[in-house]
Amino acid sequence: MEKIDIMEGLLYIAGDVGLTEEQLIMHVPITQEQLYKEVEAYDRPNLKIRRHGGSFFLETTPEMEKYVRRILEERPASKLSQASLEVLSIVAYNQPVSRSDIEMLRGVASDGPVSTLAGKGLIKKKLLQDERAAHFITTDYFLQLFGLGSLEELPSQKDIMEQEEMDLFFNNIEEDE
């Protein structure tokens, strides 16, 4: 069996969790250089191997999106609450961040949203040296879900403010008509 076939099978089984470079090198076995060559040369109809953060994932191509979307639309929605989205943004932009820091920024208890996000695999605990409190960071699944290669691709405060101003402008135009 070819190494790429083994990688494809392992990434398929890993699903949304993905596999790290170290895991692939250990289980295929393959060198780091071979790994990157295989990923670069990977050419399957409707599938691709992408890296998000420190993990690799098997994903469908954009051409498959309309078919995948149909199946996903048949499933019940699993949306995040406003509170969970607030906590997720706090963690994403301030990580590593403690639960007390999250609650200080939000002004309310955040046990529920933190548990929800951890349960969905979007955030995880990180223990910092010389700190008793657990801190939270986003996961590679968070990056994958939001289509980010790294945290540096998160929109800046300036980008967000510009988008809000444009939304407000266009909402005012629609109201005037």
Can you tell me about this structure?
With 177 residues, the protein is of the alpha+beta class. It has helices at residues 3-14, 21-27, 32-41, 65-74, 82-94, 99-106, 111-119, 140-145, 157-176; strands at 19-20, 47-52, 55-60, 97-98, 123-126, 135-138. The strands form two sheets. A three-stranded antiparallel beta sheet has the order 1-3-2. The chain has a three-stranded antiparallel beta sheet with strand order 4-6-5. A hairpin with a 2-residue loop joins strand 2 (47-52) and strand 3. Helix 5 crosses helix 7. The model has no long low-confidence stretch (mean pLDDT 88).
Record the SSE blueprint.
Blueprint: H1 3-14, E1 19-20, H2 21-27, H3 32-41, E2 47-52, E3 55-60, H4 65-74, H5 82-94, E4 97-98, H6 99-106, H7 111-119, E5 123-126, E6 135-138, H8 140-145, H9 157-176
Antiparallel strand pairs: 1-3, 2-3, 4-6, 5-6
What are its keywords?
alpha+beta, 3-stranded antiparallel sheet, 9 helices, 54% helix
